[in-house]
TrEMBL record:
Family from the record: Belongs to the PAL/histidase family.
2,3-didehydroalanine (Ser) modifications at: S142
Pathway: Amino-acid degradation; L-histidine degradation into L-glutamate; N-formimidoyl-L-glutamate from L-histidine: step 1/3
UniProt cross-references to InterPro entries, sorted A to Z: Aromatic_Lyase (IPR001106), Fumarase/histidase_N (IPR024083), HutH (IPR005921), L-Aspartase-like (IPR008948), Phe/His_NH3-lyase_AS (IPR022313)
Post-translational events: Contains an active site 4-methylidene-imidazol-5-one (MIO), which is formed autocatalytically by cyclization and dehydration of residues Ala-Ser-Gly.
Entry keyword set: Cytoplasm, Histidine metabolism, Lyase
Native organism: Halalkalibacter alkalisediminis
Protein name, entry field: Histidine ammonia-lyase
Cross-link (5-imidazolinone (Ala-Gly)): A141-G143
Catalysis: reaction(s): L-histidine = trans-urocanate + NH4(+)
One term of GO molecular function: histidine ammonia-lyase activity
NCBIfam families in the record: hutH, PRK09367.1
Enzyme Commission designation: 4.3.1.3
CDD domains on file: PAL-HAL
Amino acid sequence: MVTLNGQTLTFPEVRRVLFDREQVTASEESVKKVQASRKAVERIVDEGKTVYGITTGFGKFSDVFIGKEDVEALQLNLIRSHACGIGEPFPEVVSRAMVLLRANALLKGYSGVRPVVIERLLDLVNKGIHPVIPQQGSLGASGDLAPLSHLALVLIGEGEVFYKGERMPGIDALTKEGIFPITLTAKEGLALINGTQAMTAMGVVAYLEAEKLAYQSELIAALTIEGLRGITCAFDEDIHLARGYKEQVQVAERMRHHLVDSRLTTKQGEIRVQDAYSIRCIPQVHGATWQTLNYVKEKLEIEMNAATDNPLIFNDGEKVLSGGNFHGQPIAFAMDFLSIAMAELANISERRIERLVNPQLNDLPPFLSPEPGLQSGAMIMQYAAASLVSENKTLAHPASVDSIPSSANQEDHVSMGTIGSRHAYLVITNARRVLSIEAICAMQATEIRGIDQMAQTTRQFLTKGRELVPSITKDRVFSKDIEVINAWLKDSEFHFDKQTTNKIHS
């Protein structure tokens, strides 16, 4: 059971809730804070004070006073009118993350909602009811208004959900689980949609996949080094300590560990003096990606536990302040940075693929073909990888450098962070397929060199890989092979660090 308090949610906990379906609950202390802030909202309504979003309209309508008799209608109208999401829905796991993160943010006790609102969010998580949330339509400031409105619709018995493998009206899933929809009262609609949970949820899922892929990329690169009789001297610790980046040092250490007992690798001067950059500079390039991943993780951990709606209620209602915590700029930058870093993992992987298939760059059969000329072998797999790498270069264009004013220029600068997070996820998806192609080519090359001479770790990878994809003994539809390896990398639990290097399983 994961206990939420709005302050301490961690990546391991998020991973357990998202992928292991661990149940969640709210801490007693956080619920007390929620109750206190709710009393403040009720006082504001009762006294007829003018406070943004509680007794006023929204955006450009912030100067329009709303009477006590209309506060419920105001919140309902807000959710319905703002549910303007378009396009394909977010993956179900992202929707689950969105609900989890929104509940955690409200539990900080600054938002003025009733505890029942949070209870319903936790019900959705615990019962596996995931709102259908279109991916497009958010500017990433003033909150992820459109996506989160689709989330909020489900709480009031409207909208659609994914439930037990089916897409259905939200009210049907609630009814099946005996959950009653709620009527939103003062500030509650605004509190649900005025936040960064769409971009953050997408970013969290993207990060988790990126972290796994970054570890996997090192092992796949180790296979390539064996296939090319690469020089391991470039991974000597002294080289990397001399520069001083800890992530670079760590990548080099893992590469040495992967290849420690290989008889296919060489020392400088045995076959050649030094390798090309895509081999020799793996610690430097992959290490720089790890620097970025660490930065992204830090920002996401902060945002997962952040109060991002407006206004915020402090000191039991003594201070009710309008601000801009809903602005997604910190996550927008992080997502753009993530796109660039993961695009580079794919970029250098594609260069290694070229070295595996190009007969002018190695002494292997041309394009790893069993009958060069009659059969093309891996020739077009390199084309496919190059295409994905090129597509990533366009996706990695920063979303955060753009801004379009909205709400009659009241909201005149926005982050586009949700676009950035979606693009980051696409980049990671493409990068995984590039690395899948490298894995297929590297397995073929090491088999040609001699399986019995491989390192224990890389041989374990090859053994598992060959259960999924056979050797290239004749041309076939390689698209299927790429997708099989891609699914393995995406869905498997194998995860490589110093402690788990020798654990490869599905």
